[in-house]
Amino acid sequence: MNTEVYGLILMFITVIVLAIPFGNYIGQVFTNKKNWTDLIFNPVDKLFYKFGGVDPTKEMTWKQHLIALITINLIWFFISMFVLTNMSWLPFNPDKNPSMTGDLAFNTTVSFITNTNLQHYSGETGLSYLGQLTLMLWQFISAACGIAIAAVVFFAMKEKTTEKLGNFYFLFVRSATRILFPLALIVSILLLFNGVPMTFEGKDIMTNLQGDTVQVSRGPVAAFVAIKQLGTNGGGFLDLTLHIHLKTRITLLT
Predict the structure, then answer these.
(1) Other Cβ atoms closer than 10 A to 251
(2) Would you call 30 exposed, middle or buried from its count of C-beta atoms within 10 A (0-12, 13-18, 19+)?
(3) Which of 13, 77, 94, 165 is least enclosed, having the fewest CB within 10 Å?
(4) Longest CA–CA separation in the chain, Å
(5) Dihedral, CA of residue 127, residue 128, residue 134 and residue 140, to nearest 10
(6) 3-state DSSP assignment of residue 234
(7) In 3-state terms, what secondary structure has residue 251?
């Protein structure tokens, strides 16, 4: 039995072991039962509710949930379109990458809104860091929206009603702050300590033992990959960049 099989067995055992405590935690988050995370995240959640002008205790029907979902996605659609089509003059663009064309920005924005993340661009040359951060935010928003709507469906099946199904904003904010963010933070720290770039500096020039030079793209990669994987997103920063980064490190070592 080779190491790959052992790895698969270990992965499945880990998932089973973690499923029960993590499932209980998610249940506590969505049913508003007190747990140790309240001390950390209650003040953060309240800031979001106050800034958004929403009442998280107000019960919503399925139609109100749908309207809230569409409203969030519509607002961020316009923000994403603005950023992607104006990256060339906006900040956080040390490599002077050009702005996207309107059709490519539309395709990219819609795909990230729907959590499909169809990528018709090369991450390290097609986006500025601000563009990458905008899409990174979408990988939180789209995943949190999906989790919130899943919770609404569970409430509807449990209560056998379409009227009082909790509050979408409450479920959405908690999905982002109490589930996705802590996990993304842990994963990004692990990636960071394993050498994945986390910087706002531009490309770096490295020289291998043969004297050849290569430009290596950098950026806020560790944070981006963490939420990309947790949100089951495609596309992103490292489709090509990670390959170049790892290949360069191997070349330099050999």
Answers:
(1) 14
(2) buried
(3) 13
(4) 69
(5) 70
(6) coil
(7) helix
Cβ-Cβ contacts under 8 Å for 158 (sequence gap 6 or more): none
Residue with tokens 């949930």: 65
Domain boundaries, the chain: 42-253
The pLDDT of 93-121, averaged and rounded, is: 88
Nearest Cα neighbor of 68 from 140, 157, 159, 141 is: 141
Please tell me the total number of residues recorded for the chain in this structure: 254
Q: Cβ–Cβ contacts within 10 Å for residue 144, how many?
A: 22
Over the stretch 39-78, which tens digit does the pLDDT of each residue have? 999 999 999 999 989 999 999 999 999 999 999 999 989 9
- Ranked by mean pLDDT, which of 123-127, 135-139, 169-173, 211-215 comes out on top? 169-173
Please report how many Cα atoms fall inside a 13 Å half-sphere around the Cα of residue 229, on the Cβ side: 14
The DSSP symbol for 91 reads S
235: amino acid identity, one letter: G
CB-based contact 135:123 (threshold 8 Å): no
CA torsion sign for 137, 140, 145, 146 is positive
Distance of CA 69 to the CA centre of its chain: 17
* Residue 61 in tokens: 């029907």
Is the four-CA dihedral 164, 167, 168, 172 of positive or negative sign?
A: negative
